[in-house]
């Protein structure tokens, strides 16, 4: 069974989003030391139920992307296509982290897929 392990939000003004979410929700943001502008979000005590996420600089979308992890991206892409889904973002490397892709289900819902692989380049 695949579980939701991460969420992503986008903002054209991430500093403003960070201030808002920190004040309103008490979330903690840590700048990621990777090749793109991205902040890791800690939403609370890791011993409590819930998930953490990330914030990227970019155009906001009308839905938050839930990322399923851990998965093997290729078989899930194949299964999604066979079940009537579409590839929304092809498999690509997040250097030092793993492989990411996104699918859109027949109802239009977007799902992220993350396969851990520190050797991904």
Verbal overview:
- The protein has 121 residues and is of the alpha+beta class.
- It has two domains: 6-58, glyoxalase-related enzyme like fold (2-Layer Sandwich); 63-121, Roll (2,3-Dihydroxybiphenyl 1,2-Dioxygenase, domain 1), CATH 3.10.180.10.
- The chain contains two helices and eight strands, in the order E-H-E-E-E-E-H-E-E-E.
- The protein has helices at residues 14-25, 73-82, and strands spanning 3-11, 28-31, 38-42, 53-57, 65-69, 86-94, 98-104, 110-116.
- Strands 2-3-4-1-5-8-7-6 form an eight-stranded mixed beta sheet, covered by helices on one side.
- A hairpin with a 3-residue loop joins strand 6 (86-94) and strand 7 (98-104).
- The chain is globular and about 45 Å long.
- The two termini are 27 Å apart.
- The relative contact order is 0.21.
- The mean pLDDT is 92.
Structural class computed from helices and strand pairing: alpha+beta
Order of helices and strands: EHEEEEHEEE
The first-level CATH class of the largest domain is given as: Alpha Beta
* Cα separation of the termini: 27 Å
Could you say which overall geometry the principal axes of the C-alpha atoms support?
globular
Average pLDDT figure: 92
Q: What's the quick description here?
A:
By secondary structure, the chain is of the alpha+beta class. It has two domains: 53 residues, glyoxalase-related enzyme like fold (2-Layer Sandwich), CATH 3.30.1900.10; 59 residues, Roll (2,3-Dihydroxybiphenyl 1,2-Dioxygenase, domain 1), CATH 3.10.180. It contains two helices and eight strands.
Helix-strand layout with pairing:
Elements: E1 3-11, H1 14-25, E2 28-31, E3 38-42, E4 53-57, E5 65-69, H2 73-82, E6 86-94, E7 98-104, E8 110-116
């Amino acid at each position: 069974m695949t579980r939701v392990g991460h969420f992503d939000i986008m903002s054209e003004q991430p500093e403003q989003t960070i201030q808002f979410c920190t004040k309103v929700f008490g979330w903690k943001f840590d700048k990621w030391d990777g090749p793109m502008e991205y902040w890791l979000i800690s939403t609370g005590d890791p011993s409590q139920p819930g998930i953490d996420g990330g914030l990227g600089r970019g155009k906001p979308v009308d839905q938050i992307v839930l990322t399923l992890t851990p998965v093997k991206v290729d078989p899930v892409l194949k299964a999604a296509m066979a079940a009537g889904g579409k590839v929304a973002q092809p498999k690509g490397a997040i250097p030092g982290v793993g492989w990411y892709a996104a699918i859109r289900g027949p109802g239009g819902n977007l799902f992220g897929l993350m396969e851990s692989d520190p050797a991904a380049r």
